[in-house]
Amino acid sequence: MISVVGVTHKTAPLEVRERFAFGNRTAVGILRSVPFEAFLLVTCNRCELYGTAAATVLRQVLLDAAGAPGQTPLMAHEGPAAVRHLLAVAAGLDSMVVGEPQILGQVRQALALAAEAGRLGPVLSRLGQHALICGRRVRRETALGRGQPSVPRVAAGVVRHVLSDLSGRVVVVVGAGEMGALAARTFGQAGAQVVVASRTARSAEEAARSAGGQAAVLDELDALLERADAAIFCTGSPAPVLGVERVRRIMEARGSRPLVVVDVALPRDVAPDVRDVEGVRLYDLDDLRAHAPAPLALQAVEAAWAVVEQETERFLRWMSSRRAVPAIQALRRRADAIVEEEVARAGGDPEALRRFGQRVVNRLLHHPVVRMRERAGAGALTYLEIARDLFGLDGAQGDG
């Protein structure tokens, strides 16, 4: 069984999602605590635990990890619905900004962390590969991702709406990770004067270079905000970077000039009560949902869903074919045992006889094994039952 349990922008508000915003080290620890295959997909708009266990089991793991109450509303799917959900997520169909491509990199990272934790087995490894293939196919074969939609693009639209124009405006991007670099490029392409602030000058310089902007360190943040028109926060800090008292001092230094602040971090970089400071226009991830662009034409979405269904069916066929493995293993064990018995009876060179017997067995079993896999993949489980009865496998020692 494959299941998924989690919180997303569709099922829980920001204050709930924050509790599940696990960092990489925490995610690895959570995965190592479970005895089954699992991976944890954490983004700015979702935290989803996938595993080869029942949804009720995954739910308790996630609630315990977050220290969340039992009544916390969690999304849950099992079986084909869980498979379809992951593939839709990888395709960008479940994103706040439909079609955004960043999710593919986040799925890859989730799989890498699961491998590091020793929890990426054959089933979820195969599922993860189907998810990545699905995401790439949607971007290659449909118009869903055309125009490179992203959260920073939505943020730029909000700031443009408030300021009327981004040309020549000073925009401070706080954070130099993947989201920060993308935000810097987005605002730079829109004509803004971008300054990237990060913990280290080196990381800030790398993000600023691609945007044609300037670099600064976080120690300069107050001075930067005193002259900025807007600020985009996207660090990985576990605690708020900007508190209300600090903002009040900054706004006093600005005089009457307003400041637009967009916080796309999870957990939030900007304390929620900053919204109450006069002159500040604060937008968080939930606020951006109202400004996210509508998906492209219906046919683009339908084409993307068609790819999701195709890849879901491919994976489910593979899963079904795995049901033939115990019968195939039992058949091979029975054949090997017969070879050993005949070798013992025949005398002579046992190794030569054993090699001869194995060649005969491999040739005899090739066609039945291929057919058993094919029939199991097509859901014809009665075929496996007949094969077990025909070859007397149900009582075979060590039968899987």
Q: How are the strands ordered across the major sheet?
A: 7-6-5-8-9-10
Number of helices: 16
Give me the Rg, rounded. 28 Å
What does the overall shape look like?
elongated
Uncertain parts? 396-400
Question: Based on helices, strands and strand pairing, what is the structural class?
Answer: alpha/beta
Which range best describes the helical content: under 10%, 10-25%, 25-40%, 40-55%, 55-70% or over 70%? 40-55%
Mean pLDDT: 88
* Strand percentage: 5-15%
Largest sheet: 6 strands, parallel
The rounded distance between the terminal residues' Cα atoms is 17 Å
Secondary-structure element order, N to C: EHHEEHEHHHHEHEHEHEHEEHHHHH
Q: What is the β-strand count?
A: 10
- Quaternary structure type: single chain
Account of the 3D structure:
With 400 residues, this protein is an alpha/beta fold. It is built from 16 helices and 10 strands. A 6-stranded parallel β-sheet has the order 7-6-5-8-9-10, sandwiched between helices. A 4-stranded antiparallel β-sheet has the order 2-3-1-4. It starts with a strand and ends in a 9-residue tail after the last helix.
